[in-house]
């Protein structure tokens, strides 16, 4: 089968060649059904997350031994099942996430890890749902318990997790403020009905949000969703209300922010460190309920997945470049079929 291998640590955006840390194998062994409850899925689409990029660069918290097949969330069709599989049959449309291995034509997992994709949901879109929307749903609904009318401030709002947070915020009835850089991202966020968008290429988060809050007679931000960190996070903290929740999601800026404990004390802030993938080990039912709710929202059209870039496996370096160059609005996908005709580039 075809699979992308990371053979050494390095920059995956350079053209795939001898010098590249990634290589496409066309003869990788097909994974065997290895238990009674195992399921083999033919992957239709797999999403790129910032973490996949960091992992090949050697900058992610989980460092698998080399060589490895990167990849996390995916969708596909059940191709074969073990003798004890009761929940799925050949031909079912499924999605899931793995710690590694989805940048390949086939993957074998236990039936307990798979989710049925409801009728009417686009299968490629379902492959982008688990990590990005799963992270934001657990963060906003389970951890911060976002309420209707509360003010949600989303940094990196046009990125993978950011755009999902914006949409989940709207579903929860929050007043959503989105922060992004550049006219194209801003226009897209406005088209989603976001209450206010800060264009970082033209204005500062502090001034823009203060002006908006004043115009709505609002006193401050209740929930800060932060996948960016750095200076932007530091500025945004000045907008938080008494009793606010800070969701520490990631550090796309490359800088881990410092949250002063004395200010957290005086202002009664709750700081949530959130590592979504670890729920699979420590609290799997939260994660399972969350993904089932998200799939039902997707089927009902309450959320949608914007895929700004699609590539084939052999174009994986271009997919990583789209992430590195901050071109993505929503998600970038590796699609195992129709990639040449359906690919769109910004
Ligand atoms: N905690 C968890 O469980 C979890 C789960 C998923 C993701 N994450 C983390 O969340 C972060 C975002 O992931 P993602 O998949 O949403 O990434 P993404 O799609 O690439 O989005 C990142 C966004 O961050 C903004 N950004 C600001 N400074 C940046 C910089 N120096 N370089 C790149 N982007 C920058 C960009 O927006 P502008 O260009 O508009 O500024 C971009 O849209 C990553 O750190 C990732 O590891 C954490």
From TrEMBL:
Listed InterPro entries: ADH-like_C, ADH-like_N, ER, GroES-like_sf, NAD(P)-bd_dom_sf, Quin_OxRdtase/zeta-crystal_CS, Zn-ADH-like_protein
Record-level Gene Ontology MF annotations: oxidoreductase activity; zinc ion binding
Domain spans labelled Enoyl reductase (ER): 23-334
Cited CDD domains: QOR1 (cd08241)
Gene3D superfamilies reported in the protein's UniProt record: Medium-chain alcohol dehydrogenases, catalytic domain, NAD(P)-binding Rossmann-like Domain
One Pfam family recorded for the sequence: ADH_N
PANTHER family documented for this protein: QUINONE OXIDOREDUCTASE-LIKE PROTEIN 2, SHORT-CHAIN DEHYDROGENASE/REDUCTASE
Known partners and oligomeric status: Homodimer.
Descriptive protein name: Enoyl reductase (ER) domain-containing protein
């Amino acid at each position: 089968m075809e699979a992308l291998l990371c053979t050494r640590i390095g920059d995956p955006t350079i053209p795939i060649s001898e010098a590249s840390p990634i290589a496409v194998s066309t003869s990788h062994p097909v994974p065997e059904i290895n238990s009674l409850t195992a399921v083999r899925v033919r992957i239709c689409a797999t999403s790129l997350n910032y973490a996949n990029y960091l992992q090949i660069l050697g900058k992610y918290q989980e460092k698998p031994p080399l060589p490895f097949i990167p990849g996390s969330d995916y969708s596909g069709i059940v191709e074969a099942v073990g003798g004890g599989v009761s929940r799925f049959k050949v031909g079912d449309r499924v999605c899931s996430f793995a710690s590694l291995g989805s940048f390949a034509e086939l993957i074998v997992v236990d039936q307990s890890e798979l989710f049925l994709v409801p009728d009417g949901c686009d299968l490629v879109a379902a492959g982008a749902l688990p990590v990005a929307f799963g992270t934001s749903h657990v963060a906003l609904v389970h951890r911060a318990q976002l309420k209707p009318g509360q003010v949600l401030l989303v940094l990196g709002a046009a990125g993978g997790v950011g755009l999902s947070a914006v949409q989940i915020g709207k579903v929860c009835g929050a007043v959503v403020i989105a922060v992004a850089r550049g006219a194209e991202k801003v226009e897209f966020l406005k088209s989603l009905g976001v209450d206010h968008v800060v264009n970082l290429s033209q204005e500062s988060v502090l001034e823009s949000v203060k002006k908006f809050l004043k115009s709505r007679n609002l006193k401050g931000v209740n929930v800060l969703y932060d996948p960016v960190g750095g200076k932007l996070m530091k500025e945004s903290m000045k907008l938080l209300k008494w009793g606010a929740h800070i969701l520490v999601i990631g550090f796309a800026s490359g800088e881990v922010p410092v949250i002063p404990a004395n200010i957290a004390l005086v202002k009664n802030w709750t700081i949530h460190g959130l590592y979504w993938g670890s729920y699979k080990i420590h609290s799997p039912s939260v994660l399972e309920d969350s993904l089932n709710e998200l799939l039902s929202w997707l089927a009902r059209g309450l959320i949608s997945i914007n895929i700004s870039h699609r590539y084939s496996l052999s174009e994986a370096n271009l997919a990583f470049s789209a992430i590195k160059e901050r071109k993505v609005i929503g998600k970038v996908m590796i699609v195992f079929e129709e990639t040449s005709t359906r690919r769109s580039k910004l």
